[in-house]
Amino acid sequence: MFIGYIRKQIMGRSRKKRLPTEPVRATIESMSHDGRGVTHLDGKAVFIHGGLTGEEVMFTYTSKRKKYDEGVVSEVLIASPDRTEPKCQHFDICGGCSLQHLKPEAQIGVKHQSLLDALEHIGKVEPLEIFPPLTAPTPWGYRRKARLGVKYVPKKGRVLVGFRERGSSFLAEIESCEVLHPKVGQLLMPLSDLIGALSIRDRVPQIEVSMGDDSCVLVFRVLEPSTPEDCEALERFGAEHGLNIYLQEAGPDSVRPLTGKPASLSYTLPDFGIDVRFLPNDFTQVNTELNQLMVARAIELLELDNSDRVLDLFCGIGNFTMPLAKRSAAVVGVEGDRALVERARENAKRNELENISYYTANLYDSLEHEPWLSVKFDKALLDPPRSGALEVLEQLPKLGIKRIVYISCYPGTLARDAGELVHRHGYRLLAAGVMDMFPHTAHVESIAVFESK
Questions:
Q1: For domain 145-211+216-263, which CATH number applies: 3.30.1330.60, 1.10.10.410, 2.40.50.1070, 3.40.640.10?
Q2: Tens digit of pLDDT for each residue in 75-95?
């Protein structure tokens, strides 16, 4: 499976430093946070793509560094009982996934351990309870938001569309993707043919995928204006496949529908009777089914009653704010992106929710003059980006917040912030657990609950 990948890795890196060419035997001791097998040879850590805990493998070196080495499995001698055949035919070269060779239930175990290790070693905290993993009904075809690379390669005589090769800046030559929603994942070759026939085939670097419940938008980034013939071809393709084609000719503000008629993008939160509308370049969760489960769990864990005042930080377009408003007296949503705040206000109005106030504020900057800090709250929900929420944590006890639900897309910053909340700000870590937002990748989404002591 990995032979083609091995050749590329060796050829690409041999110019920098000569590597051993003979395969080496090793026992995989554990899994790294990015889904690679870990072993030690001569006292030095080696990270091996394709290796699973407990396996005996032969591997080939792909790089040697001062503190660690890297390699890729060339043969599995003794397989883990958790090993499975990857569904995707391109798993050996594509960098979009890293765990398809591991059974989905075992993938969750790896992510679970990654979270617990981070809490212990970074935050120096331990949850009183571990939540069972939150998973969607299927781990395939779930991805509704993605950025696809595009590259015209004359030597191959075609346009490549998809993700980068593993460990490389080059685009992988793939024909389909099993984790993208089938509406797009099975169209990579037709997209290749479409772009290859355009006059600007070498001036289209990427396609942004944005899907709602009922519609799909493809935003073509173009570095030169499209000809009328190009636009006709794009429009025909969209009509044939039920897609809404947009163009982006400069920055994010230049995104526009090809036909002039904007698509209606939205998703529902059926447990709360809420419809959330968004624009193609707005942030939304990639996994709609998991998002529904995640929102429901977060609201449940806050233990709301109709007298609670709730603070929703990093609120985006209102994914959590509006469900919170259905279960509490009042909600304040705060977000740093002014455009997202406007969308959130529109969503609240459309859903007839009058007990929400939204504010635009940089939550990584000084907040001393923010009007929403002059009132008290009972509970808070935090859903920060990868960088976490460290700068705003000191405000939470000052606001009288007794209970916090923290949604995280990176265990490292969750663990750091958990340590701050517990050791400096007077909270207890009641419980934590993982949520499989990105099956078959090493990405770890998690949720934690804190309560004031």
A1: 2.40.50.1070
A2: 999 999 999 999 999 998 999
Residue with tokens 């391109």: 90
Strand pairing report for 379-382 and 403-408: parallel
| Residue labelled with tokens 């496949």 | 241
Place of tokens 């060779």: 101
Domain range 109-138+274-452, CATH architecture:
3-Layer(aba) Sandwich (3.40)
| Cβ density class 59-75: b for 16+ within 10 Å, e for less | bbbbbbeeeebbbbbbe
Q: Which of 97, 177, 216, 409 is catalytic?
A: 409
Q: What is the mean pLDDT of the chain?
A: 94
Residue 3: band (very low, low, confident or very high) from pLDDT cuts 50, 70, 90: very low
Q: Going along 56-132, which residue ranges are E strands?
A: 56-64, 68-78, 129-130
Residue 257 structure tokens:
């529908």
The three-point CA angle 94-197-89 to 5° equals: 20
Pick the CATH number of 3-83 from 1.10.510.10, 6.10.140.1670, 3.30.460.80, 2.40.50.140: 2.40.50.140
What are the pLDDT digits (tens) for 305-361?
Answer: 999 999 999 999 999 999 999 999 999 999 999 999 999 999 999 999 999 999 999
- Catalytic residue status for 409: yes
Contact yes or no for 234/226 (Cβ under 8 A): yes
Specify whether the CB–CB gap between 83 and 108 falls below 8 A. Answer: no
| Residue showing tokens 């806050």 | 302
SS3 21: coil
| Distance (Å, whole) CA 111 – CA 441 | 10
Integer angstrom CA distances of residue 362 from 27, 77, 223, 312, 338: 48, 53, 32, 14, 10
Q: For residue 143, what are the CA distances in angstroms to 263, 290, 359, 441, 446?
A: 19, 11, 30, 12, 18
> What is d(CA 109, CA 289) in angstroms, rounded to the nearest whole number?
20
* Among 236, 142, 258, 144, CA closest to 190: 236
Vertex 355: Cα angle to 363 and 271 (nearest 5): 90
pLDDT tens readout for residues 118-137: 999 999 999 999 999 999 99
For tokens 């998809």, the residue is 162
Question: Given this model, what pLDDT does residue 276 score?
Answer: 98
pLDDT at position 167 is 82
d(C-alpha 53, C-alpha 50), whole Å: 10
